[in-house]
Design brief:
By secondary structure, the chain is mainly alpha-helical. Helix content is 81%, strand content 0%. It contains 4 helices and no strands. The radius of gyration is 15 Å and the shape is elongated.
Length: 90
């Protein structure tokens, strides 16, 4: 029997967390980041983007093409919202 790789261990731990919990945590962090604004809001949005990107990188080999594109679209949207919130309107 072989030892599981680090990626497999992380993916197994990630799958143990209920989907509703991770989704709710992301939605709350993003909404609070949008409502609060300023540096605190940007940090929450940035942290959400970083965590989402890390989860996407871990799960990439196991996802179908449609799932990859959908999650990549969400990531691009989150990055765009973060940049718009960071750069003040002139």
């Amino acid at each position: 029997m072989t030892d599981p790789t680090t990626r497999e261990t992380l993916v197994n731990r990630l799958f143990r967390i209920p989907t509703k919990v991770t989704t709710a945590a992301f939605v709350v962090a993003i909404l609070v980041g949008l409502v609060v604004g300023g540096p605190v809001g940007w940090v929450l949005l940035g942290a959400s983007v970083i965590v989402f990107a890390a989860m996407l990188a871990l799960m990439w080999p196991d996802l179908s093409t449609v799932e990859r594109m959908l999650r990549l679209a969400v990531l691009v949207f989150l990055v765009a919202v973060s940049v718009v919130r960071l750069v003040p309107a002139t």
